[in-house]
Amino acid sequence: MRRREDIEIGGYDWPTLILWVILVMVGWFMIFAAGYSDDTTFSTIYDLSYNYGKQFMFIGVGLFLFLIVQLIDVSFFRTVTPLLYGGGLLLLVGVLFTKPINGATSWYSLGGFSLQPSEFAKVSTALMLAYFLSLPNQKGKSLQYKIQASVLIVLPMVLILMQGDAGSTLVFLSLFIVMYAAGLDTWIYILGLIVVALSILALIFDTTWWLINTIVLIANCILFWSNRKDSWLLAFVLIAVSSIYFLFQINIFWATLLNVVLFISVFVWTVIRRNFQQSIMVLSVVVLSSLYTVSVNYIVNQVLKPHQQDRIWMWLRPEKCDPLGPMYNLDQSKSAIGSGGWLGKGFLEGERTKLDYVPEQSTDFIFCTVGEEWGFMGAAGIILLFAALIIRILQLARRQRSTFAMYYAYGVASILFFHVFVNIGMTTGLVPVIGIPLPFISYGGSSLMAFSLLMGVLIKFDSNRLYVFR
């Protein structure tokens, strides 16, 4: 085994460090390009009157934080993790009493800069979840264990949602991937996917009744299929007739009546055949699913604020949005990316970028600048860099001897994946616009410093893995 001094100096995972540095430098160049125009005079790279100058300073602060983490003994993190988590929650509570900025109370104002505690809460929550999952004598299959771990994730989510920052709230959902690695039942994730699918379908359909018809139709199919040996011909005829009514939407009244009569008939039939458990289960699913779809429509149309509704309709029902209103920003985003072609227009040559057609092009929509100036090849290159970094972090997770370090590494990979997928997805219209930064590339001090801490702690854990024997 190598000496401790050798590990501390040469034990760092250089592929991870190199990928991280490349992404940070790409981000700085893109922020410079996003703020560039032909009639603007630039002085120095650290000119704090421009975003690129501030970002250069944030890079320095992030590097400083990374180096500080490397000087701390690795056992110290386990000791202070509960305190860091508690401190993070206190900061999230305190920010609720600050002055709103852009409709959200998410920032502490420090001189000419702002600090967003939700970004640092990702670090403390990832550490706390890893700390809890690695405690001895924990039984991964117990209900109490699952609830306690879930509460650790949900608490900061609730506080951030109270700030009006839905985007940062959703990021914490990615930490449930870590719980899957810790043994959370697969059926819970399947149920979650079903809920998401029902939510989307409830909003796509013009009327909720058509979705309820679909649910009942599926239930009919399940019941018929489970008894197909005795009535396969009848099942085929009835399902075909019901499908014709549904697909062609002949008349919603007759389609609903036919589906309900079919369901009641089959339900009674299965009860007579003494398949009580199956009948009750299917009935419960139909009732709960129908009530849920009605509630989704009510919440979106009656509870959400207009700008939140617009973000959903932009994604699912763009025809309901004003093309010169909410849709304008998304259209400009996709036009900027598409205008780059295969190889892009060249660095500092993006016309839509220079003319500020794209909103928030230094922060949430920085990927538009990449697409316009570097084209498809450049955008694909950025995605490949992120993919390589996430895959490498997963490899680091699997080689950890400490369960604390392993679960933390999974948490870092999950947070990075969610940020990258959602940010790039929202600029291309694949997911709703929820406003979260692209890691290392978007402008923002809080984001860059928080991700520097995430990476710094991960690298520290990995560099000391050979001294952990359990």
Structure characterization notes:
By secondary structure, the chain is mainly alpha-helical. It is built from 19 helices and 2 strands. It has a two-stranded antiparallel sheet with strand order 1-2. Helix 5 (117-133) packs antiparallel against helix 18 (403-427), helix 10 (208-226) runs antiparallel to helix 11 and helix 18 (403-427) packs antiparallel against helix 19. Residues 1-9 have low confidence and may be disordered.
Topology:
Elements: H1 4-10, H2 14-34, H3 51-71, H4 74-94, E1 108-110, E2 113-115, H5 117-133, H6 143-162, H7 166-171, H8 176-181, H9 186-204, H10 208-226, H11 228-248, H12 252-272, H13 276-303, H14 306-316, H15 326-339, H16 351-354, H17 366-398, H18 403-427, H19 445-463
Antiparallel strand pairs: 1-2
Helix pairs in contact: 2-3, 2-17, 3-19, 4-5, 4-6, 5-6, 5-18, 5-19, 9-13, 10-11, 10-12, 10-13, 11-12, 12-13, 15-17, 17-18, 18-19
Quick recap:
With 470 residues, the chain is an all-alpha fold.
Could you name the key traits of this structure?
470 residues, mainly alpha, two-stranded antiparallel sheet
Q: Topology as H/E string?
A: HHHHEEHHHHHHHHHHHHHHH
- The helical percent reads over 70%
Uncertain segments are 1-9
Number of helices: 19
Could you tell me how far the N terminus lies from the C terminus, measured between alpha carbons in angstroms?
A: 16 Å
Q: In total, how many beta strands? A: 2
Query: What Rg, in angstroms, do the CA atoms define?
Result: 26 Å
Mean of residue pLDDT? 81
